Amino acid sequence: MPEPILISIATAIATKAATGLYDLVKEKFSKDPEAGKALETAEAMPREAGPIRVLAERLEAAEQADPEFAETLRSGWTQHAEKGGVTNQISGDVSGKVVQAGDIHGNISF
User: Fold this and answer.
1) For residue 96, is it within any domain?
2) What pLDDT band is residue 67 in, cutting at 50, 70 and 90?
């Protein structure tokens, strides 16, 4: 199972919320047909947990094989987050109420 941060990165890439990271990953995965397919599938189904998990697994494998790519990916993610990029994700079965948000000032009530 990939790290939760890789799931978040995969979601941002699939939805193109982090275009710089998307471009980085697309270039990296262009050399690996299976990884490229994972990216394409996640793009086509960005709200589906399965394709996002597969993309995150591909990111994890790419990081392990290429420490320079890992550093660039993580650095890019940090920059994205510092600019106010918020990526919320829920996976698995959820019952009940859920709030996804960036900064909350004040109370939340249902």
Assistant:
1) no
2) very high
